[in-house]
Structures are given as structure tokens and as C-alpha cells.
Amino acid sequence: MIPSLIVSTGSATHPGNRRPLNEDSLLASAPVFLVADGMGGHEAGEVASSAVIEEFSRFIGRPDLTLDDVRTALSRARDAVEALSTSGNGRAGTTLSGAVIASVDGMGYWLALNIGDSRTYRLSGGELEQISVDHSVVQELIDSGELTTEDAATDHRRNIITRAIGAGSTGEADYWMFPAELGDRMLVCSDGLSSELDDARIREVLMSEPDPQTAADLLVDEAVRAGGRDNVTVVVADAVLVASKPGRPLQADDDIDADTRPREAAAGGIR
User: Fold this and answer.
1) What is the pLDDT of residues 242-268, one digit of tens each?
2) How far apart are CA 198 and CA 153, in angstroms?
3) Cα–Cα dist 188/120, whole Å
């Protein structure tokens, strides 16, 4: 089977400057590119994030996934994390954000998912777009007009999330599905990156460094040097071949059909 989307990846993680334990986990192997930011303390967060990533690791090597595949994995991951809490590992929980490779009529698509305040971005045509919507108290205040984006960066409630996998949360994930374009660069990160670097600086790094592994290393290093108040994790996935027609990979000199251009990812995504 000819893959609908082929990617080149890079990833990096660091515990930061203030925490002895890195509770983040990541997966950067086709067709799955995810970051999970654990919470709960006493190693519960580390175990929770690892349990979720382990569930999605079952898909490594598949050419693509469906929405049902992702939802089933999330359901199993939630059961695994809830079992940690009942087995004495405290109130274990984790965020989860990222993208998986999907296919529609043989053409390459991104299927993005998010629960919590880790983030998924897309750099396309020089523009950096945050695909995911934070499930956090400050994001709700921004949406209601009670808080500006600038003030949210320093608000004392910025670390309070409203949805998670585990930690007593029953909130569901949001999903977005959109056609992939040749040259897309997907960035998935824990809030240890987005709380230290603004979107403008993140875009500058992604634009300046063509190698995805080097870009991931640079982003993590800069976030640590900027303060490193939390664990920092980054996954970068570049679309290097995209099927523009069923069964045929898109070549570098092909024109991209108008109907394969990404539509706007609306807040809330697919339900």
C-alpha cells in the first residue's frame, strides 16, 4: 500500500530547571505524533503519561489511522490512567495533544486531537497556526472576553486545566481533520514550551531550521534557558510526501489541487 503521507520527524524533552522528574512522554513515530504532560506528583504523572503513549504505540507502522482508531485508543488510555488512581498512585492524570496520519480517498490528511493544555500547531506557507484549543481556565476567560491573551501569560490561574485524561476529569478530547500539504510542519508541545516562548519566537525557530530534529532541540534548549519552569517536550513532524490523488504520492514539482488545501480548523473541532 502506498502511504498517503510520509513525514520526517524530530523530538526532544527536558525536565526543566525546577523539577527533578520529567512527567512528559512523547511519541514521534509514524503514523502518530503525540505529547502527554503528566500530573499528580509522586511519579503518578510520569506513569500516567507513559500509559497513554504506550496505548498509542500499538499503531506504529500503520500507514494511517481512522477517527475510530483514535477514539478507541483514548478510551483504553483513560481506563489505564483511572486504574492507576485506584491502585494507590494518587490522582494520576495527563494531557494529550498531537496529530496522526489519516487518509481520505487515498489522500493524506492530518487528524489532530487535544485534551488539556498541551498544544498542536501547524506551520504552513510561513504562517504558524495553533490548531488545538487549550482546555484551561484562562482560555475560557479569554473566550468570554474577561482576560486578554497578554494578561493570560502571567495570570495565576494559567496552570489550571479544565480537561484531562484521568485526575477525576470526564472531559472529552477535541478533534480536527484537514488535508495535508507538502511542506507542512506540525509542532506538538507541552506547556513547558508555550509558557516560556511566545508564538512569534516559536515560528522564528521553526522557519529558520529546516531539520526537524535540530528544530526540536533548539526549541527545548531555548525554553530551558528562558526559565525552564516546567518539563519541556517538543515533537516536530514535516510532511515530505503527500498523496494528491488516490495512490500517487505528491512530488515536489506537482501543483496542489485547490480542493486539497486545508480548511480552517474551527474551535471545538469534530464531535
Assistant:
1) 986 654 444 444 433 333 333 333 333
2) 9
3) 4
Question: Which residue(s) pair with 5 in the sheet?
Answer: 242
Is the separation of the CB atoms in 124 and 185 below 8 Å? Answer: yes
Q: 26-41 burial, b for 16+ CB within 10 Å, e for fewer?
A: bbbbbbbbbbbbbbbe
- In angstroms, the first-to-last Cα distance of the chain is 30
CB 101 within 8 A of CB 7: yes
Q: Can you tell me whether residue 251 is helix, strand or coil?
A: coil
Confidence band for 89, pLDDT divided at 50, 70 and 90: low
The sign of the torsion formed by the CA atoms of 212, 213, 217, 220 equals: positive
Residue in 186, 167, 163 with CA at minimum distance from that of residue 240: 186
User: 179-209: per-residue pLDDT in tens?
Assistant: 999 999 999 999 999 999 999 999 999 999 9
Q: At what angle do helices 199-208 and 212-225 cross, to 10 degrees?
A: 140
Beta strand residue intervals within 30-95, DSSP E = 32-39, 93-94
Q: Sketch out the chain's domains with CATH numbers.
A: 5-129+162-252 (3.60.40.10)
Query: Per the structure block, which three cell numbers stand in for 227?
Result: 526559565
